[in-house]
Amino acid sequence: MQTAQPIVVGVDGSTGSLEALREAKHMAELLGCPLKVVTAWNLPVTAAEYPYPLEYDFKDDAWHRLGDALDAVFGNELPQGLEREVHEGSPARVLRELSQNARMVVVGSRGHGGFAGLLLGSVSSAVAAHAKCPVLITHQTA
């Protein structure tokens, strides 16, 4: 029996987000929920963060990162009923908003950026603290 509430998973192409995607698929199967895979993007705020050509398409890049993540984890065997979404905004805000209608949100403990020694990244910490549904934080396997 499938419920209308999806398992939402945030992916950014990092190893941690690929592990989160694997676990989210497993949870969706166990709970009989659809799987919604989400990538968020932001325009850089300062010139120092903008080493891209002026015509660079951040939204298109986000769609490519999402597709690459799906290919890396599932290859040609995508889960049935899989939904894909790309949103403009900070990943923490996007996932927090999507949590309002989700059965569960799954995130990796570390994504791109930050300091490697930290156990939780800013996105996973913010989502865990403010989501409106249960949150599963995955850790990379050895």
Please describe what this structure looks like.
This protein has one domain: HUPs (Rossmann fold), CATH 3.40.50. The N and C termini lie far apart (34 Å). About 6% of the residues have low confidence. The chain has a five-stranded parallel β-sheet with strand order 3-2-1-4-5, with helices on both faces. Helix content is 36%, strand content 18%. With 142 residues, it is of the alpha/beta class.
Gap between N and C termini: 34 Å
Helix/strand-derived class? alpha/beta
Q: N-to-C SSE series?
A: EHEHEHEHE
Q: State the name of the first-level CATH class.
A: Alpha Beta
Report the CATH architecture.
Answer: 3-Layer(aba) Sandwich
Radius of gyration: 15 Å
Which range best describes the helical content: under 10%, 10-25%, 25-40%, 40-55%, 55-70% or over 70%? 25-40%
Largest sheet: 5 strands, parallel
Observed structural traits:
142 residues; alpha/beta; 36% helix; Rossmann fold; globular
Layout of helices and strands, plus pairs?
Layout: E1 7-10, H1 15-31, E2 35-41, H2 58-74, E3 83-88, H3 91-98, E4 104-108, H4 122-130, E5 135-138
Parallel strand pairs: 1-2, 1-4, 2-3, 4-5
Brief write-up:
The chain is an alpha/beta fold. It has a single domain, classed as HUPs (Rossmann fold, 3-Layer(aba) Sandwich), CATH 3.40.50.
